[in-house]
Amino acid sequence: MSAISNLKTYLFKEVSIAPLVIFRLAFGALLFYSTVRTIQKGWVKELYIDPGYHFSFFDWIKPLDGSGMIIVFYLMALLAMLIILGLFYRLSLGFFLLLFTYSELIDKTYYLNHYYLVSLLTFWLMLVPANRWYSLDAVLFPKIKSDRCAQWHILIFKIQLSIVYFFAGLAKVNPDWLFKAQPMATWLPGKYTIPILGKWVHLKSVAFLFSWAGCIYDISIWVFLLMRKTRTIAYLLVLVFHILTGILFPRIGMFPYIMITSTIIFFSSSWHEKVLSYLPFSGYFSRREKQETFNPRYKSIVTWALIAYVIVQLYLPVRFLNYPGNLFWHEQGYRFSWRVMLMEKNGYTSIIVKDPVMNTLKEVDQELFLTPFQEQQMRSQPDMILQFARYVGDRFREEKGYNPEIYVKSRLSLNGRRSQPFTDETLDIYNIADPMAQGWILPFGEKQDN
Amino acid sequence: MKNWHFILLIMVIAGISLQACTDDEGGNESDDSENDFTALLTNQIDGVILPAMEAYQDEMTDFESAVQGVSLPLDNGALTSLRNAFSEAYTAYQVAAVHDYFSTSSIGLTERTNLYPIDLTVLETLVDSESNNFGSDDHERADGFPAIDFMLYGSDDVLAYFNEDEKRLAFLNALVSNMKTISDDLVSQWTSLREPFSESAGTGLGSAISGQLNGSLAYYEFTIREDKVGIPIGLVGPNDSPITPDATKIEAFYRSQADGNDNFALSLVRTAVEEMEKIYLGTNSSGVNGQGYDDLLTARDQESIDADIKAQFQSIYTEIDSRSSITEDNNRELYDLIQGLVTLYKSDLFPILNIQDADGANDGD
After folding, report:
1. What is the share, in percent, of chain A residues with pLDDT greater than 90?
2. Which residue of A lies nearest to B302 if distances are taken between CA atoms?
3. CB atoms within 10 A of CB B239
4. B208, B243, B261, B230: which is closest to B336 by C-alpha?
5. Are residues B7 and A360, on separate chains, in Cβ contact within 8 Å?
6. What is residue B18's three-state secondary structure?
7. A216/B11 Cβ within 8 A
8. Closest Cα of chain B to A115: distance in Å?
9. How many angstroms away from the CA of A396 is the closest CA of chain B?
10. Which residue of A has its CA nearest to B202?
11. pLDDT for position A291
12. DSSP letter at B135?
């Protein structure tokens, strides 16, 4: 057990709290900006209020009625402000985490890896004492004031971000990405209006360069951020990489800013202390060393909890190995795995309801239930199709008084290949227990390639 | 710092070696012209869109003068001239309406000109009240071609229909004039859109290419596939609608009744699909095959998609030509063939051209 006790000692080593404080300020500002941006763009209404149906992650999660959702987002903006100020810190973070995660679980359509990352980072921020220094809490409750914290309080963020990068990179190690430069070769040529770079985006070699560079960057950048000697250069690369992707793919929205902001935590504590010293009122927080004593039981719990967390984080991105077939095609185990920008998957999916007694067919007019965005996201994601089919079937049963059969006819193309049938259209997915296990998603055929 | 140099070195080597690989393959490198859509868009607006709008305006002008030229009591000769003008205008409308994007959709051409089936009670009330408040909700179920279709074909004795109440011809006059005004708007708005349209860059949302492909395909899906075929055959429709075929829901229903067949309605479907094909091929008003989306596919070595799309159009025509009724037995065939083209566009054409069909509010990743 000496490895564990060494780890314990390492995790609870006292270090400067400066990196954590700067992280709180920067990340809080990001949360605030991101929330205000969502409100300002009118997305709250468009995403939560307008749609009549939601692909919720859990049946019991529903959007609030009336102006409820708007209030949720205003509350989040307020809480983000409190996080920056470090006022009622844990409470603010707890509520922010709750509201943010709630709003993300309402609809799979809006699932984004970086929102998932925000939830995880917020969770850890809630658990670490980033309000001990340079915060209103430290003014109001001087007992908590300290410029020290435990090593793990900072390390957990570095670990989390490293996991994100590493798995995002590992996911790119696939034949489409490396040997066909897909989907880059599909997306880049459309970017020719971008200044300077626009001249070359149509070249296959540029798509290859971007693909390989992106893959190598993601797999390795965290190592260079961790090492003191390479940190400055590595952070410059972080800037170049994320700004470039932000320009090329504006739709990724907040992602570049989240990474650019979060990776600051990799910098040394002396760097953070210097930054902190430039901030207003920093003089107010005169140095006060508080020797913290943790009881061994607490240390053990934290250590094992961290180990368990890391194991789960390492497992989630590889859980797809439990499912046979092509991950991009069936998408089982795709979410919560840091798989970003890997697919151009498109096509057409129609849902056909059959009245088994009258023997009549009816194609569901998806527009009546779904927004174009929901429709677009659903057509290539089996779990969403099943969820929607179930909902439609239940509606038919209630409103028409018969037990319908539901069939899905779908053709999709993946990463520049010709389209191919996606689902077994002879399978009634409403009345069988586990369509996925019954081969409802047809096997992906490489041969369709032209 | 050594490590950093190492990465850079790897990237450069990777880049160079890949450049070398792809060059060796040859033929895959595309040149700048691949991203120059000006020729395509110029051909689309000058050769396809504007001629469609102008032809519709011409037919509406003729129709308007035909209506203005008749007087009561109506005789058979006058009725025939009205019916001819109606058929020609309705056919020209099919062509213009396919371009349901930018000016056409902001004017609301389809909603203001071709909602069917109409409500006969509403029509009678409007005629009676001499309402010519076209475009208002009152008129929604008794406007445009479907209302004219009833007036010119819907009665056992059409001459008597007009002759026994002069308000009816007056209403027809006002209705056709209003439609003519809409056609004028179409031409003038599209004309002023000529430059921004042909100079539009890229295939992103809001670009001319995305607008044209998405707009015409949505029209094709919801108006051609669904309204003209899917609803009458009972396959699609609001969930409370009967699930059985309903022949009264076909386009130009009264004319079909009078003719005893759906030939005219079928010809309208064919005309609309043909216009989709003209957009695809870039066939201009003199029948010359100019820059179209087929050319973009072949420039990207996607001949198989191009061949499939062309074949799909042919199968649709063959099916239409073999029918005398939209709702006849085995009616899914036409619907499925029309649908097949939607699938080809969305699964094969759109990804190659990097066209998105929905603007997700929200970020993507």
Report:
1. 82
2. A450
3. 16
4. B230
5. no
6. helix
7. yes
8. 10
9. 8
10. A190
11. 65
12. T
pTM, two decimals, is 0.88
Q: Do A396 and B239 touch (CB under 8 A)?
A: yes
| Residue A396 to residue B10, Cβ atoms within 8 A | no
C-beta separation of A393 from B263 below 8 A: no
Chain B positions touching A187 (Cβ under 8 A) are 354
pLDDT at A124 over 60: yes
Burial of B350 (0-12, 13-18, 19+ CB in 10 A): buried
- b/e burial code for range A92-118 (CB count within 10 A of at least 16 → b): bbbbbbebbbbbbbbbbbbbbbbbbbb
Residue B15 and residue A376: Cβ atoms within 8 Å?
no
Nearest to B236 among A208, A341, A363 (CB): A363
Note the pLDDT tens digit of each residue in B46-93: 999 999 999 999 999 999 999 999 999 999 999 999 999 999 999 999
DSSP calls for B279-328: HHHTB-TTS-B-S-HHHHHHHTT-HHHHHHHHHHHHHHHHHHHT-S-SS-
pLDDT digits (tens, 9 = 90+) for B322-353: 998 998 765 789 999 999 999 999 999 998 88
- How high is the ipTM of this complex? 0.82
Q: Which residues contact B265 (CB under 8 A, 6 or more apart)?
A: B228, B250, B251, B252, B253, B255, B256, B326
Task: Select the residue of B235, B239, B354 nearest A399 (Cβ to Cβ).
Answer: B239
User: Are the beta carbons of A346 and B230 separated by less than 8 Å?
Assistant: no
In angstroms, how far is CA B128 from the centroid of its own chain? Answer: 33
